[in-house]
Amino acid sequence: MQISKITEEQQIADMLDWALAGKHGLTIQGAGSKAGIGRPVTTEQGLDLSGLTGVEMYEPAELVMKAKAGTRVSEIQSLLRQSEQRLAFDPPDYGPLLGGAAEAGTLGGVFSCNLSGAARIKAGSARDHLLGVQGFTGRAQAFQTGSRVMKNVTGYDLCKLVAGSYGTLAIATSLTFKVLPRPEKTRTVLLYDVPLEKAQPLMNRGLSSVHDIAAAAWLPADIAATCDIEYIRGPGKSVLALKIEGPGPSAEFRCTAIREMFEGEGAQEELHGHNSESFWRFVSNASAFEGSERPLWKLSLPPANAVTVIAAIRDKAVEADYFLDWGGGLVWVQMPDGLADGGEGLVRGALDGAGHATLIRGSEALRGKIAPFQPQPTAIQKINARIKDGFDPENILNPGRMYAGEEMKASV
Amino acid sequence: MLMPKPNADVLAKRDALVEGLRRIISDPEGVIDDKDDLRAFECDGLSAYRQLPMIAVLPSTVREISDILKYCQAEGVNVVPRGAGTSLSGGALPLADGVLLGLGKFNKILEIDYDNRCIVAQPGVTNLAITDAVKADGFYYAPDPSSQIACSIGGNVAENSGGVHCLKYGLTTHNLLGIEMVTMDGEIVRLGGKHLDAEGYDLLGVMTGSEGLLGVITEVTVRILRSPEHISAQLIGFPSSEQAGDCVGKIIGAGIIPAGMEMMDRYAIHAAEEFCHAGYPLDVEALLIIELDGPEVEIAHYQTQIDAIAKDCGATVSRISETEEERMTFWAGRKAAFPAVGRISPDYMCMDGTIPRNQLPKVLKRMNELSKQYGLRVANVFHAGDGNLHPLILFDANNPGELEKCEAFGADILKLCVEVGGVLTGEHGVGIEKRDLMGEMFSEEDLKQQQRLKCAFDPDGRLNPGKVFPVLHRCAELGKMHVHNGELPFPDIPRF
Ligand SMILES: Cc1cc2nc3c(=O)[nH]c(=O)nc-3n(C[C@H](O)[C@H](O)[C@@H](O)COP(=O)(O)OP(=O)(O)OC[C@H]3O[C@@H](n4cnc5c(N)ncnc54)[C@H](O)[C@@H]3O)c2cc1C
Ligand SMILES: Cc1cc2nc3c(=O)[nH]c(=O)nc-3n(C[C@H](O)[C@H](O)[C@H](O)COP(=O)(O)OP(=O)(O)OC[C@H]3O[C@@H](n4cnc5c(N)ncnc54)[C@H](O)[C@@H]3O)c2cc1C
């Protein structure tokens, strides 16, 4: 594949004209850090947007920033930090998980894939923070949607479609998004040795309490053992973790209150500022599964189903590794090698229609063979196909990345 | 306000359509064709515009909705969904040649699921009833439009409604987990559920705020939150709106996101005070109501900071609610601001633009000038935290030409919002009210791209036509594409 490094918007417009005229597919990438998610895209020509960089507007008191799509997320984060602000949805960094470098991910990539970390349950998802998009559709038309203000219901919210469409509907060139204050303090309460069966009910109890828990995860002992924070790895037990944020006195108060609430549910510890932050990065980035090439699935499901879903998977594949985030609403499952479908049948069967499973890591062969994204019912796929047709009628943008061509024919 | 021309062929077969719909709906009262009975549906909350529907139907099952839509699709008849009819943008305004689909009978809560912290309800359930269903157990549903005793949860999804607490807790879209909906061809589909995030394209995200143009929402799943431990409200008065606006910016700049932060101008303060004796100071030009929630230590911590900031910005009055009763009184005035203004003027029109907060002084100044120019008074209530303005223009529809003057004034305000970097509507929707202003914010091509989304759901354009888009393009026309040249551009940009 030939890859052209884009440095200005006009080059994209011209590339699109060329692609449309000759019906050439284009692979759209930011830093390419997430190229391993989805069906393999094979085009002769690629567009690398990582050179389209720069913060165009940042007004801390208005809680808003606008930046070019190729700007690195890590760069945005350090800029925000200078004003004691952050991206509240905890953008994860899957670079190392997918065998690449850390901190390479671009803004366009994180929003196009709608990736959110552990904070998602309280702070919302990436798409919830996306206020406006400028870019090009597959019609080679410049377009914009949304705005720079927090509340906007003017016309259809096409930002929602751009987020999570993996570059199959439009090429975003600039994104406007909401930023939020960094909490003064972060604490994490740890409960050791809670068994899986009790993990989700206990997290639910915490999340149903008045203590405004910002994130909730549970790691089995073998997963906890891969974390380099002593409080997590040391005891050799499973770890249930509840995150609290706020100004000093309130974080302190909540931490104590939560510990009292869970008195008698196992040994307790707490993580403070720095440890707490690096622990939640470990969870959000699924770092426990780095350094392997085994198929890795991300399951979004009703939290109360987590235990039965895991039981159903482990019943057939006892070597499957897993942990819970989002209070049980997110289950990461790393499948053993040697399953012809990478565990697709098992994982989707276990969900039984409630929720969805995405293959986050898998060999190219596997990704070409199975459906990395949850297949949709026919009636929905029909709408999806028409949406794709409206944005990208010649199917030139990341062709086949989410769904195979036949599924995306508008005439279906 | 021009609506699409009624289709004479459809009007001519009205009796046959009534018959056809009677065969679908089991309840004999469920098809309304009597003129007097149809009056009940002739307008929504934007009562300046009225239109009798051709027929109204009140189905009671999802199957009936599906059959009605299929039937109307086949007969080439337009359909307007209606929840509680509180829309302030005319979204539920009937069409002379259309079937009005009322969802009032879908008024049951289907499931309260504490294990997954969510509630499943039919679309006609009121916003407040959702909170009421879980209140005794210490939970609530966060988005709280001022119309919450009346508006339906289905309407909230269709409008992506907000409320005074959406600064901290988000709009409908941030609290919505799933829906069941029926497309115009009668297909019943589920989007989302009790889990988070869409797989594939985010259809749930675009359905939210779709103003009844994409599908009929027949079931809603929303997340519920635990009610905060303590809540406290604070009234802060300023000698000028600029100072109040400055204070809002500095509070947020200091890293504080209050649960709610509302602002009222002198006119609104006086109207509200007269209406419900909330104890508002009357010698100030602008009043902030700031609500904080959480543990007492946190509230106290923030209140100390806020007090210092307010003083610094020139506040002349500051009062913290001592009791829950007093807190409710602080809010009573704000929540009743619309009816309060309604009492002192024969008619009023509520506008709904959003602006970047720092543009507030400029916008208020210009609005005062416009008020003088048009000779119409305006009162301002303002979701200050997120920049959402609600100017209330006072007029008297009985004075010839005054409605048109009010419309022109309103349009000027909204154009001003766009001019300073804001938007036409923050939470009330485009409907018919702002339809013709869409070109102020979007290029022709951007509007076409939005309509292509409409085509994906409703290719024949049968659902709620005449709303949102100033020009209706046919889907076939929108699908066409013009191809430019075929040369591979930029041989000089690096390739690898
Ligand atoms: C006695 C003591 C206990 C500690 N226990 C933990 C622990 O359980 N988990 C952990 O991750 N780190 C613990 N630490 C390490 C320490 O909190 C971090 O290294 C600290 O530097 C984090 O800084 P911060 O800015 O995040 O402050 P914060 O975490 O917000 O802490 C603020 C202050 O409180 C002090 N402090 C933190 N924890 C305790 C405690 N349990 N008892 C008394 N004072 C404390 C810190 O030294 C710091 O000065 C402990 C340190 C001390 C001195
Ligand atoms: C006094 C007052 C105060 C208000 N305060 C606020 C406020 O604070 N914040 C705010 O956001 N709004 C506010 N509103 C506006 C209004 O209440 C909201 O827009 C509300 O969500 C409309 O709900 P409804 O059930 O009345 O919908 P309707 O008015 O019946 O319909 C509104 C739109 O939604 C569509 N629709 C309704 N139900 C469905 C369905 N089931 N499926 C598909 N489409 C459907 C209709 O076609 C129409 O386009 C206020 C209104 C009034 C009168």
What do these coordinates show?
The complex is a heterodimer of chains A (412) and B (496). Chain A is of the alpha+beta class. Helix content of chain A is 31%, strand content 23%. Chain A has three domains: 180 residues, Uridine Diphospho-n-acetylenolpyruvylglucosamine Reductase, domain 3 (2-Layer Sandwich); 100 residues, Alpha-Beta Plaits, CATH 3.30.70; 83 residues, 2-Layer Sandwich (Alpha-Beta Plaits), CATH 3.30.70. Chain A is built from 15 helices and 18 strands. In chain A, a hairpin with a 4-residue loop joins strand 16 and strand 17. Chain A starts with a strand and ends in a 21-residue tail after the last helix. Chain B has 496 residues and is α+β, with helices and mostly antiparallel strands. Chain B has four domains: 95 residues, Uridine Diphospho-n-acetylenolpyruvylglucosamine Reductase, domain 2; 118 residues, Uridine Diphospho-n-acetylenolpyruvylglucosamine Reductase, domain 3; 109 residues, Alpha-Beta Plaits, CATH 3.30.70; 92 residues, Alpha-Beta Plaits, CATH 3.30.70. In chain B, strand 5 and strand 6 form a beta hairpin. The chains are: A alpha+beta (412), B alpha+beta (496). The interface between A and B is large, with 109 and 106 residues. The structure holds flavin-adenine dinucleotide (2 copies). One flavin-adenine dinucleotide (FAD) binds next to strand 3, helix 6 and strand 10 of chain B.
